[in-house]
Amino acid sequence: xxxxxxxxxxxxxxxxxxxxxxxxxxxxxxxxxxxxxxxxxxxxxxxxxxxxxxxxxxxxxxxxxxxxxxxxxxxxxxxxxxxxxxxxxxxxxxxxxxxxxxxxxxxxxxxxxxxxxxxxxxxxxxxxxxxxxxxxxxxxxxxxxxxxxxxxxxxxxxxxxxxxxxxxxxxxxxxxxxxxxxxxxxxxxxxxxxxxxxxxxxxxxxxxxxxxxxxxxxxxxxxxxxxxxxxxxxxxxxxxxxxxxxxxxxxxxxxxxxxxxxxxxxxxxxxxxxxxxxxxxxxxxxxxxxxxxxxxxxxxxxxxxxxxxxxxx
Length: 313
Prior knowledge:
Number of helices: 13
CATH topology of the largest domain: Isoleucyl-tRNA Synthetase, Domain 1
Order of helices and strands: EEHHHEHEEEHHEHHHHHHH
Structural class: mainly alpha
Strand order of the largest sheet: 6-5-7
Helix content: 40-55%
CATH architecture of the largest domain: Orthogonal Bundle
Low-confidence stretches: none
Largest sheet: 3 strands, mixed
Strand content: 5-15%
């Protein structure tokens, strides 16, 4: 209830209090998915299939309505409450909550015009722990874009395609194995899966990007450009190139929910669509199974996934 205004439903035992109008608006969650529809109707079947919610995501400033009042209403009506209520924090700019009335904030289009939609989504899931307040700054986003997306992920994809083209005519060599990479992928997948299911998007992305760094380190250590100078190293060289491409196959699947457009480009460049099917159809539970990218897949170069940012003089 509220006592700061007089419009609303008056509380019978306290004339100074009124029930805020948002009380009845909460019912929309249930009626919108068919609460009042006949059980055998389309709406009734939808309600049976979707209620209760697995996760009810709300802003922290309306947590009381959704964690106290709404469950009480559902219990009174004999309906199941959501399995989880998760309150996200505020996005701060200059240490203050973004506000339309105070004109404090940054239009998302300003950011996406500069960095792209995928990088925008990646940054806000990666940089700010979900559930806490977080600050945005152009400087931090630029730094993460350059370090994590352009250098670690994008450059790995570009180097891999270029080397397969240069040393193998653009055709992926035979399936190879590397115990360390395979173990690292399994660890990253397990950690990311647990974190994402717990809505710890930052933790999930960090686990995936740790694997990306591992693959970059693998390429640096093996030095395929040196191996290519000696024909007797051809088998070793081809193994390195396969393992790098197979790692990128896994990264495309793991990062697809976060950066779908970018990962689709990578998926196509690996020839994976033709051999393995649509990227969106790949299962996280199977992503760590090594050797899925088949021999003789045609690897093609793509435009740079994350172009270098233009810097003002």
